[in-house]
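Proteins fold reproducibly. Next comes a concrete instance:

***
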Amino acid sequence: MKSLSLQLLRSSDRKVRSGFLFPLAFCLLSVGFYIPPHFSLPASAQAIDPPQAEGNRLIQQGIQQYETGQLPAAMDSWQQALQIYRALKNRQGEGNALGILGAAYNSLGNYVKAIEYSQQSLAIAREIKDHHNEGFALSDLGTAYLYLGNYAKAIEYSQQSLAIARTIKDRKGEGNALGILGVAYQLLGNYAKVIEYSQQSLTIAREIQDRQSEMKALGNLGGAYFDLSNYAKAIEYFQQSLTIAREIKNRFEEGFALSNLGAAYRSLGNYAKAIEYAQQHLAIAREIKERQSEGAALGNLGHAYLSLGRLCQAIEYYTAEFSHRREIKDRQNEMKSLGNLGVAYRVSEQLRQSH
């Protein structure tokens, strides 16, 4: 029974794996919403010019709102600051506000808007020779193009961002650029490059004690070794990523690492472990109301049970996944889950006929 279900799964297994390793949702990108420290504006400027002081106050207010999970309110503050800086013809302030709005639109998944704002920020940064904002804008452009699937553009902008970060000795910015490059090369299937850039990103994250970036770099390294079929090495990195996610209480990334561990153990034929990790992922996805992740976890449980030849459970989870994908209007994955359900029923029918 097991060999028959495995044979039917094998032809589509590669596509399933990449789905585990790179969920296109805000998180990931293994790169995040990063506000450079130079956006902290000097109090002396506020004392000189009341309108500029109000713009500066709104930038800081937006950062505080973002840090407490109020992104729409934060964007409102930054838009108000942008209007003030434009009225004052303050190019530095305008570039700051545009840059931070570009990053925010990236985090919301509005990549066209992110590019629009980041391009304007980049133009101002180059005009006034502000290398910090130039690097920041280039990084955000790289992120936006990555999510839009334009990997050549993502690499082009990220390489420019990396060069500037190294010139001005911005280690956080350097690590960020390396992270984006690692993800871009993973999607292009160049795993040697993924490992090269992710290792450099990991070294920097540990040097500057940035646990979030360390966790993401470890996840990217695990993904590269997974795609190279070195599952033991992948598990080693995914496990380290999971440990940090739990330490910093990042439930989304904890679920992501659990999903990856489940995929790796399934590839090794350890279906009991695969089910254990997928069940934990499902519980977290439901707890944090992450609907895409919930669908992925249901599908992963279906894959594991099908690989075990436990067809009733496989059909149960594939049916739940299909209903869930339809409910959240995820058309692309709805069709994939329907295909998975078809495979399970076909195996069941073939077994019935063989008896």
The chain is about 80% helix and 0% strand. Residues 1-32, 42-46 have pLDDT under 50 and may be disordered. The first helix runs from residue 2 to 10. The two ends are 12 Å apart (CA to CA).
